[in-house]
């Protein structure tokens, strides 16, 4: 993917990727990310999603969605 920094830093900055993968990471962050801003950094689970898409490997996307739904239900802001 052409990442120019250390891989084990925890968060991946998409500015350090080549343009096609930068667009893929950007799309996955917007589609599967649960944050409201700061779309420049991809967390480890987002990079696992991208890696599974690039390598055509199976990945349990529904588990990630369920974990975020469950986290929203147990928070103080749940109505």
Describe the structure.
With 79 residues, the protein is mainly α. The chain has three helices and two strands. It has helices at residues 19-32, 44-55, 61-74, and strands at residues 12-13, 41-42. Strands 1-2 form a two-stranded antiparallel ribbon. α1 crosses α2 (44-55). The model has no long low-confidence stretch (mean pLDDT 80).
Which features would summarize this protein structure in a list?
79 residues; two-stranded antiparallel ribbon
> Whole-number radius of gyration?
14 Å
Helix content: 40-55%
Tell me, rounded to a whole number, the average pLDDT.
80
User: What is the terminal-to-terminal distance?
Assistant: 42 Å
Strand content: 5-15%
Total DSSP helices? 3
> How many domain modules?
1
Number of strands: 2
Backbone shape:
globular
By secondary-structure content and strand pairing, the structural class works out as mainly alpha
Could you give the order of the helices and strands? EHEHH
Oligomeric assembly? single chain
List the uncertain runs: none
Query: The biggest beta sheet, please?
Result: 2 strands, antiparallel
Q: Which strands sit side by side, in order, in the main sheet?
A: 1-2
Question: What's the short version?
Answer:
With 79 residues, the chain is mainly alpha-helical.
Strand and helix map with partners:
Layout: E1 12-13, H1 19-32, E2 41-42, H2 44-55, H3 61-74
Helix pairs in contact: 1-2
């Amino acid at each position: 993917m052409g990442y120019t920094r250390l891989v084990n830093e925890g968060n991946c900055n998409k500015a350090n990727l080549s343009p096609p993968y930068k667009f893929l990471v950007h799309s996955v962050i917007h589609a599967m990310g649960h944050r409201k801003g700061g779309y420049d950094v991809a967390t480890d689970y987002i990079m696992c999603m991208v890696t599974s898409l690039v390598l055509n490997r199976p990945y349990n996307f529904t588990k990630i969605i369920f974990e975020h739904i469950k986290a929203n239900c147990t928070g103080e802001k749940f109505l």
